[in-house]
Structure formats: C-alpha cells, structure tokens
Amino acid sequence: MKTTSIAPLFETDAYKLNHGAGGIHGHGMYPAKTEYVYSNFTNRSTRVEGVTKIVHFGLQAFIQNYIMDAFEPFFAADEDEVARLYEERVFQILGPNNTGSEHIRKLHRKGYLPLEFRAVTEGTLVPLQVPSFTIENTDPEFFWVTNYVETVTSSSYWFPSTSATTALLARKLLEDWAEKTGTPIEAVDYQFHDFSFRGMSSPSSASTSGAGHLTSFKGSDNLNAIEWIDYLYPGDNGTILNSVAASEHSVMVADGRDNEVETYRRLLEEFPTGILSLVSDTWDLFGSVVDKVLPELHEQIMARDGKLVIRPDSGDPANILCGTVREFEKGTTDEEKGLIELLWDQFGGTVNDKGFKVLDEHIGAIYGDSIYYGRADDILERLAHKGFASGNIVFGVGSYTYNMTTRDTMGGSAIKATWIQVDGVGRDVMKDPKTGSGKKSATGRLAVLKDREGELYLVEKATQAQEDFSELRTIWKDGEWVRKQSFADVRATLRESAKNLKRI
C-alpha cells in the first residue's frame, strides 16, 4: 500500500491533534509548561473465566514497525513539504481549530521520536492490574508525543498478546490431557495447528496473530508469520514452524467421485514418506473413505514410511471423532463409534503405560473446523472415556479461536497517564470514574517488582530506587534499541514463566 511521508502522524485518533498544539495560546490542551507525560499499558480485567495473567508479546514488533520504520519517510522528507501536507490535512479535519505545523516541524528536526519504552521481558506472564510497559517522552518539548502514539500502540499490541495468551491456554489444556493419558509432551508442540490465515481481517492480522500462536506451538500453515518473526524478532530462532504435505478439496475432486480410491492411491504413491494429510469428507467420510478406501489401501498405508492423516472438516467435530455414543457404551455403526475408534478397528495400535490406546504410527487424524478451547476439551475427555490417548488427534484451529476476540477479551487493556511534570514539578495523576470502578488507573511513577515466590506486583508512586529495581526496563530510547529479543528468547521466557501454570 502506498503511503505518504505524513502517514504515521495520522495513525491516531483525531481528538489527539489538538493535544500538542492549537488553541488561542498555541500550546494545545495540556497545561502550559507541561514537560513530561508518563503512561503505562495495563491489562485491567478479562472476559475469560479463570484467566489472571496475560502473555506480554508484540511490543518489540510495534516499536520496529511503527516507531522506527513508519517514521523513516517522515524524517527523510523535506521539512516544508511535510509541514504543507500536514497543515492541508488537519485543516480539512479540524477547520478553524487546526493546529498549525510548528510542533511537527520541530519533531521533524529532531530526527526520531523522543520516547523511552520500558517493559517486562516479552514472553512474561503479567498478572492483571500490573503494567506490561510504560511510555515517556525524553525531551520536554515533546510531552505531547507520549499519548499521541497511544492509539496505534494499543491497536498494534493487544492482538498478538491476546493470541499468545489464547495459545498458551490451549497448550496448558493439551499438556493436562497429555499427562493424564500418557501422550508424550513433545507431541503437544504440534497438536494445535494454525489454519486461521484465510479468516483473518488482513494479512497483517494473520502474521501478528500467527506469531502469537507460535509462542506456544510449532504447528502452523500460516506462513506469513515467518517473515514477521524473522524481521521483528531476529536471532538464532531455530525452527519457527512446521507443517506437512496436505491436500484440499480441489485436489480430492480432481479425479472425480467415482475415482476416490485412485486419488488416495495416487497421492500415497506421490508422497511415499513422511506425514501426508488428506481431507476426507469431500463426499462421504464414513461410507466411502473409512469403509471402502482405507480397507482397499490398507496394505499400502501400513507399508508406507510415514503417517497418513485423515482430515474431516465438516459436521459436529466431537461426534465425528468420538462417535455419538458417549462414555463406556459400545457403538455399532460408524457414526456411533466415531473416526478414532474406526481407525483403531482397522489399523490397531498399542496401549501406553497409562493404559490408553495409541493408534498405529501409520495412521492418524486431524480435525480442522470449528475447534476452540471448550470443544477441544470435550473431545479429549470423550476420547479418554473411550480409552484413547489425547495424542491420537491433532486440532486445526481457525479464525474463530484467534480472530473472534477484542481488546477486552483477555485483558480489558488500556494506556493511561499516571504521572505528569509541569514547570519542573511532578504530579501523580490517575483516572478514577465514580461510575466505573473497574477503570480506575494506577497513579504516580510505577515499578513492577517480584515477591518471594517470584510473582510480579505493582508499586505505585514508586521511588527512584524501586524504579531502578523494576522489571520494567528500558528496551528502546531516542531512536535506538537498548534491549532486543529473539523469538527463541520469547519462547524460552514464556516456558519459564508458565511452567507452574495449570489449565483453566
């Protein structure tokens, strides 16, 4: 998308245009002689029952994308041209209340955004009501910049953080079932597979959410997350994601319905090794694929150096995988038994140390439609009742899980000012609406410290010594990175931070 040199100046709300300039005295809406504005980002509450901590992830990406890259054309452009374009646009927006451009000219001459970001390490689980990061201007002439970038900061940050938290909750669910049913914990890395790209609002949303998914998993078809991670979290990141050879419905219909067995035979021959995933309900999952195709190709499947994965993606996922007969009753029809039991009947397998059945290594299943946390839990519970280990199924998770979220889903997040300096005197400030106690903000300079158990807690009106020992450490200041993380480091931090976290 083509952008102009002034584009990053308008990645904000219109009401912020008058905060740094304008008015009859020219200094905008803040008090005269305002010098510093100090704000923080805090997840205040959640709509997901049981969630008390949020994964801090995505701030480094935002800073690189917006605070640095987006402003390059602005600082590289001619000052008079930037000022002209800015004044033209603001006059269209505000009319007689337009702000002029002297403050924009001064920012242009500065050559960078005079800000300091302090944050906990990305990958950290941050409790509700505890700040993840702070923003403060470093030059008193640009007090207005701190909250000028609030809108784009929040917009860019909440989604990857929310997706990372969603992924972590799913991982803890899968780890719990793996422990209960004897599935190797390593299998969980690939048990929640990201299929969400096509359902996202944009490729940018897909990459940011896809990276959030990958903080807890390695299985994904969301390839544009790789470039996002490589550029924004560079380093020795090892394997970012894995996927497998897989078909779609257009492949399965290409030979025609009457030649379905030949389609399977051809694809098994074309991919003689490794995992091969074939969508299997283009026409009739049970009556055709399970009852006819798989028996006819049984010998070829068992002789193959790899696993054939059967993938249904329509209907009721729990009933298709587990059968319509629940608990310990014995089903007789295909529908009553469900796919996993039917595969066991045909291909057999082993019984693990905890007494749960594990399908033969040559056959498996993935379900990639309408999967979310509660449904995955129900499926694994029903499989366990039937005597099957959790690792017999992989879940393909789509946009419902990752895209049907808002800024309030996981964290009720907000950026609020808590300290302002005017004419050399600091002021502890706060928001405390009588009509909404949940929106009360912190106040003063802030520090995030650890208690004896290693839990993070907030200190308001912090002393300089408390700030010095705070987990909120400078990561970026005055156009330069002070501390930067690789994606591997984010993953490692999250593993350590969540090691004692149980499923919700």
Describe the structure.
The protein is of the alpha/beta class. The chain has 3 domains: 1-30 and 72-111, no CATH class; 32-57 and 114-148 and 412-497, Alpha-Beta Barrel (nicotinate phosphoribosyltransferase); 162-403, TIM Barrel, CATH 3.20.20.70. It is built from 19 helices and 19 strands. The strands form 5 sheets. Strands 15-14-1-5-3-18-19 form a 7-stranded antiparallel β-sheet. Strands 6-13-12-9-8-7 form a 6-stranded parallel β-sheet. The protein has a two-stranded antiparallel ribbon with strand order 2-4. Strand 10 and strand 11 form a beta hairpin. Helix 3 packs antiparallel against helix 4 (102-110), helix 6 (150-181) runs parallel beside helix 16 and helix 11 (285-296) runs parallel beside helix 15. The radius of gyration is 27 Å and the shape is elongated. The model has no long low-confidence stretch (mean pLDDT 94).
Q: Care to give the gist of this entry?
A:
The chain is α/β, with parallel strands linked by helices.
Task: Write out key terms for the chains shown.
single chain; 504 residues; alpha/beta; nicotinate phosphoribosyltransferase; TIM Barrel; 3 domains; six-stranded parallel beta sheet; 37% helix; elongated
